[in-house]
């Protein structure tokens, strides 16, 4: 037995717990590692069909206590036969196989159950469900690991471009803490009475029937037969009543199970669907929904990327903050076993690409691509020898998730009050900056990633 002189920290606890879980699984029993909201571990052993030697069990308990230190729960070892409803844990839909472990002959399986206060939806990747008849609006999430990368402006440009092509487009502003695309697209006096924040608050009480949630864009003049609708984060409110936005925002993230919705993620998904239905009632079903997501590793972003969209456009600049942030996020997806699913709908956007004599855009994009490939490699398969059956695109693969789609930097857009500047998006320098992005993103959204 190894006794540690220094305290065990969060990052060390999981490898220690996994080592004991592997030892327990070698006895033939299935094992479930449970990590609580403080990061502490319990080891649950399924002894219902496999007899466990008492001496071995005592060894596992002692090993967990001594190696995990503060990261062992008060009852670090539990057996299925001692639990009232063991299958509520062992058969929970929230468990996932332990990555990197495959049971050998006579060995049990190992699963992991993570309990977190926030962020659990980063580990739940699913494909949006088709509507009745197999037809469903295509959804694209616009996301950045950091703010200030031009995400909302790109959302405006992309939404208007698609509407100009004849599509019915809905922009859902899910950046609740810092609404961007809503104010950029709709004049304040033309906002709907309620915003997405209202839908989230009211749905927790089952009180969301009949909310006025969408308005047509007033700051984008659409050509042809296309339509551009906006579901803003905040509404204009009821006349004569103060619109208490902050008070509502303080309550939207709570998991308040209702009769039909079990948690915040369900309510957020229902909110986007409610906005789609509002457009359908007012005009026609949207062809495309663009979700302007909250930046950073945030619960809204987790749901937007993992559950709501078919395509996720990841914005970034070629700097350390971008790559460290995405690498942490990708590592979490790989650790939870979601890498093969999530990587199929990701595309990297190189935002505000400089073009100067000191650093031509070609040079910048080459460096961006190499750094992106190194970062995305966390999500790619490890190929062994001549095995080419896995997914591991080369750095030069222009169709790969890491291949940058450029938006050029233009000084004229810095500090521009877009809402007060009519026709700014049709200016030649703006078209030049966004042309490549609009062409590629439109193809991905309409044809699929």
Give the C-level CATH assignment of the largest domain. Answer: Alpha Beta
| Sheet with the most strands: spatial strand order | 8-9-7-10-6-11-12-13
Largest sheet: 8 strands, mixed
The residue fraction in helices comes out at 25-40%
The CATH architecture name of the largest domain reads 3-Layer(aba) Sandwich
Query: Strand share of the residues?
Result: 15-25%
Number of strands: 13
Describe this protein's structure:
With 449 residues, this protein is of the alpha/beta class. The chain has two domains: 10-115, no CATH class; 122-447, P-loop containing nucleotide triphosphate hydrolases (Rossmann fold, 3-Layer(aba) Sandwich), CATH 3.40.50. The protein is 34% helix and 15% strand. The protein contains 13 helices and 13 strands. It has helices spanning 10-25, 54-68, 87-90, 151-164, 181-185, 196-203, 245-249, 264-282, 299-308, 320-335, 339-342, 361-376, 428-447, and strands at 31-35, 41-45, 72-79, 96-97, 110-114, 138-144, 168-173, 215-216, 227-231, 288-292, 311-316, 346-353, 405-408. The strands form two sheets. An eight-stranded mixed beta sheet has the order 8-9-7-10-6-11-12-13, sandwiched between helices. A five-stranded mixed beta sheet has the order 3-2-1-5-4, covered by helices on one side. The longest helix is centred in the last third of the chain and has 20 residues, at 428-447. The chain is globular and about 80 Å long. The chain starts with 9 loop residues before the first helix and ends with a helix. 43% of the residues are buried.
């Amino acid at each position: 037995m190894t006794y540690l002189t220094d305290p065990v920290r969060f990052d060390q606890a999981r490898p220690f717990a996994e080592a004991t879980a592997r030892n327990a699984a070698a006895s033939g029993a299935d094992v479930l590692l449970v990590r609580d909201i403080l990061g502490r571990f319990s080891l649950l052993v399924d002894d219902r069909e496999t007899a466990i030697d008492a001496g071995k069990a005592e060894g596992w308990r002692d090993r967990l206590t001594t190696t995990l230190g503060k990261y062992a729960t008060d009852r670090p070892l539990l057996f299925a036969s001692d639990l009232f409803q063991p299958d509520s844990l062992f058969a929970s839909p929230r468990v996932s196989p332990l990555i990197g472990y495959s049971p050998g002959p006579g060995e049990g399986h190992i699963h992991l159950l993570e309990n977190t206060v926030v962020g659990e939806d980063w580990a739940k990747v699913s494909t949006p469900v088709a509507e009745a008849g197999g037809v469903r609006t295509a959804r694209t999430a616009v996301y950045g690991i950091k703010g200030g990368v031009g995400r909302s402006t790109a959302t405006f440009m992309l939404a208007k471009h698609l509407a100009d092509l004849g599509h019915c487009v809905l922009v859902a502003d899910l950046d609740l803490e810092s609404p961007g695309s809503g104010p950029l697209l709709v004049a304040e006096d033309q906002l709907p009475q309620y915003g997405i924040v209202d839908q989230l608050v009211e749905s927790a009480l089952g009180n969301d029937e009949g909310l006025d949630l969408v308005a047509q864009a007033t700051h984008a003049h659409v050509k042809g037969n296309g339509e551009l609708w906006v579901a803003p984060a905040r509404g204009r409110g009821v006349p004569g009543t103060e619109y208490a936005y902050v008070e509502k925002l303080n309550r939207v993230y709570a998991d308040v199970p209702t009769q039909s919705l079990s948690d915040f993620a369900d309510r957020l998904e229902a909110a986007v669907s409610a906005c789609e239905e509002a457009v359908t009632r007012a005009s026609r079903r949207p062809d495309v929904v663009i979700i302007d997501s909250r930046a950073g590793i945030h619960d809204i972003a987790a749901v937007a990327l993992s559950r709501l969209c078919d395509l996720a456009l990841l914005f970034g600049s070629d700097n350390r903050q971008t790559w460290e942030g995405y690498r942490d996020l990708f590592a979490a997806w790989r650790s939870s076993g979601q890498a093969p699913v999530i990587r199929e709908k990701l595309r990297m956007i190189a935002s505000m690409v400089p073009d100067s004599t000191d650093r031509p855009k070609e040079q910048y994009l080459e460096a961006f691509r190499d750094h992106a490939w190194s970062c995305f490699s966390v999500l790619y398969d490890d190929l062994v020898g001549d095995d080419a059956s896995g997914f591991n695109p080369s750095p030069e693969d222009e169709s790969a998730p890491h291949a940058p789609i450029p938006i050029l930097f233009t000084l004229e857009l810095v500090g521009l009050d877009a809402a007060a500047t009519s026709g700014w998006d049709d200016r030649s320098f703006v078209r030049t900056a966004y042309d490549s992005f609009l062409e590629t993103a439109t193809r991905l959204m309409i044809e699929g990633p």
